[in-house]
Specification:
It is a single chain. By secondary structure, the protein is mainly alpha-helical. It has one domain: Rhopdopsin 7-helix transmembrane proteins, CATH 1.20.1070. The protein has helices spanning 2-6, 8-43, 48-65, 67-75, 83-117, 119-125, 128-146, 148-166, 169-216, 222-251, 257-293, 295-308.
Amino acid sequence: MAALIHNPVLLDMTHIIFMVAYSLAFLLGMVGNGWIILITGFQVKKTVTPMWFLNMAIANFIFTSFLPFRVIYTTLGFRWFLGTVMYKLTIIVTSLNMFTRVFLLTVINVDHCISMAYPVWSQNHRSPHLASLVILAIWILSLALSLQYCDLWDSMSSSSEWNIISGNLTSVQENLLLRKRRMMARVAIHFLVGFLVPLALIITFYILLAAKLRTSHLTQSRKPLNVHLALILIFYLCWLPYHVFYFLRVSGDALHSVMEKSLDIGILFADGLLYLHSCLTPIVFLSMGQEFMGCRENACNYQNAVHLAGEPAE
């Protein structure tokens, strides 16, 4: 990494590679997520499962639409040119995308576990109206968590500028320390709420599902399970470097210039994985979604057949 930073030719090649990758991610993400929005929004019956994926595609579509700004930012040598408002909006959209996707991913997997373990109960209580309320709550919660960036930016910049103008160096140091603590708290919240806690919930529900299926001697197709595992694996592999590099950024007090540039390139790589994730999710859904969307009806039909055969139902 040090050799890359000290070699301008390799550094320029790195910028070109990222610009090409961002451009491809923009095209694939807009087309793929736009296609998902078209299918789930207009061509598929308004049931619960398409509603989950419709909103995930909308979050990906909004996130991908900001990719041209990232391409121009990289082209200009990592210099932001659109002002503070657009900078904050870009950060908010990134955070909104993360929270919305991970919350929807958690709800999708919890919904899948409940439908497989209790198919008749799920058929009677699972409705598009209830799904709409859950989706609305997810968007509101994600937006509330994302707007903390504006408060942090405004409070830090205004207080620091005032203290520098007034010459109060002690207050400047205190504000810098406070800013670092808030940044670390923000990164910790992102990791816990947007990464670790949802993963723990997903694992817990799948353990409960496995225990339920084992005791009830019910079987299910592995195709829907493969869809869920692929979505979970893609999400956490793509978002893990993001949390790691930003944690390293806020935890270092006085980083060496080489180390700081290495982190910049690492963050650039982590951001690229986020855009890659927006492209991979539609591919997984389009290639395996038909079997996935029909799995709950098959589970309910199986349970009803068991009931008609004289065995106890749910």
